[in-house]
């Protein structure tokens, strides 16, 4: 097992707060990059949430305390930029420009520096507040989530922030690989819109407005949603006729042999499937359907999911955390604890 990660030798500076930026750089740190948080006197505000919250986004990093608004801080930033490959920042666009955290401001120190800006609506999109839940509401996610008879709702975790962090990490690495310095601009709003891909395409090309369906039902596939059972709920996702044939045989269901038929007779199909699934529990159906290759899973809460996947839990100092989802042959990440404020300078 090699000790050096695939990003060993890559040096990344982070001016990040809360989630999107720190999550992006933590994914890179897990792959061996040297990530240094540049923090003000009070530190990243996520330090005030809880120690475990901060650890979940900042394991394996370094911390330098620096006041970027001061002359001394700007000089120190230049020294750090001169020996780094990239800088990732998530602040309001006006703050990014005011603190000189753009490529145009930093290229004099390092022509090859990659500067990644995570903002709500883009570097030229203004300073409107853009927290995760606000973005989910404004980009259409909330309108698609929840029971049609009730109010719109949210997924329950920071999907916009996490997705944007991963997208920013991809953009950062792409520009490093290109061998050119430059500005990378990633906005939460555009990332979420891009992830509503087939919904957007259906509207833009076919004029079909997306609609919220009961039990989180899929727009194109039937049956593909959450179903009640004799005990608990089951997620069933049948995307083609082969899956349906195997399911129908196991559940004792007749008819609806083609996808087109199932889509056109959605209500009938859902009634028949709901009745059939009432004969067993969610975990019972899972045990019966999975060996047949049918996508099905009992609805579990997070503690249950963690209990069933103990190999995903890692130790970073005193913290138990979910480890990197990227598994690379021959490499095992070293999960170091999150840094103390200013632990590595300042």
Observed structural traits:
three-stranded antiparallel sheet, 15 helices, alpha/beta, single chain, 11 strands, six-stranded parallel sheet, 346 residues
Summed up, the helix count is 15
Order of helices and strands: EHEHEHEHHEHHHEHHEEHHHHEHEE
| Shape label | elongated
Which structural class is indicated by helix and strand composition?
alpha/beta
End-to-end Cα distance: 35 Å
Rg (CA only) = 24 Å
The helix fraction, in percent, is 25-40%
Largest sheet: 6 strands, parallel
Walk across the major sheet and give the strand order.
Answer: 3-2-1-4-5-6
**Average pLDDT:** 96
Give the percentage of residues in beta strands: 15-25%
Identify low-pLDDT runs: none
EC number: 2.8.3.-
GO molecular function: transferase activity
Organism: Nocardia implantans
InterPro entries: CoA-transferase_III_domain, CoA-Trfase_fam_III, CoA-Trfase_III_dom3_sf, CoA-Trfase_III_dom_1_sf
Walk me through what this model shows.
This protein has 346 residues and is an alpha/beta fold. 32% of the residues are buried. Helices cover 39% and strands 15% of the residues. A six-stranded parallel beta sheet has the order 3-2-1-4-5-6. A three-stranded antiparallel beta sheet has the order 7-8-9, with helices on one face. The longest helix has 20 residues, at 159-178. The chain is elongated and about 75 Å long. A hairpin with a 4-residue loop joins strand 7 (224-228) and strand 8 (233-237).
């Amino acid at each position: 097992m090699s000790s050096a990660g695939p990003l060993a030798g890559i040096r990344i500076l982070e001016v990040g707060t809360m989630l999107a930026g720190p999550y992006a750089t933590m994914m890179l740190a897990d792959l061996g990059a040297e990530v240094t948080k540049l923090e003000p006197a009070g530190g990243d505000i996520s330090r005030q949430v809880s120690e475990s919250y901060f650890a979940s986004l900042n394991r394996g990093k370094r911390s330098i305390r620096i006041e970027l608004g001061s002359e001394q801080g700007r000089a120190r930033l230049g020294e750090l930029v001169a020996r780094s490959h990239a800088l990732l920042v998530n602040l309001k666009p006006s703050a990014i420009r005011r603190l000189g955290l753009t490529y145009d401001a930093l290229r004099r120190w390092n022509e090859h520096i990659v500067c990644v800006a995570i903002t709500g609506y883009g570097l030229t999109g203004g300073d409107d507040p853009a927290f995760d839940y606000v973005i989910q509401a404004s980009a259409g996610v909330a309108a698609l989530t929840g029971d049609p008879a009730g109010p719109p709702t949210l997924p329950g975790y920071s999907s916009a922030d996490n997705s944007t962090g991963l997208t920013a990490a991809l953009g950062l690495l792409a520009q490093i690989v290109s061998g050119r310095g430059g500005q990378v601009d990633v906005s939460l709003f555009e990332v979420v819109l891009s992830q509503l891909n087939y919904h957007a395409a259906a509207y833009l090309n076919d004029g079909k407005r997306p609609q919220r369906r009961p039990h989180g039902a899929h727009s194109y596939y039937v049956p593909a949603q959450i179903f009640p059972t004799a005990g608990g709920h089951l997620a069933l996702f049948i995307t083609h006729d082969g899956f349906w044939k195997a399911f129908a045989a196991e559940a004792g269901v007749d008819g609806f042999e083609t996808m087109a038929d199932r889509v056109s007779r959605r209500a009938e199909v859902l009634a028949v499937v709901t009745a059939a699934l009432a004969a067993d529990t969610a975990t019972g159906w899972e045990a019966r359907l999975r060996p047949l290759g049918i996508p099905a899973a009992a609805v579990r809460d997070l503690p249950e999911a963690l209990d069933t996947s103990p190999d995903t839990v890692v130790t970073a100092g005193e913290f138990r955390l979910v480890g990197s989802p990227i598994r690379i042959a021959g490499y095992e990440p070293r999960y170091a604890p999150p840094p103390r404020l200013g632990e590595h300078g300042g």
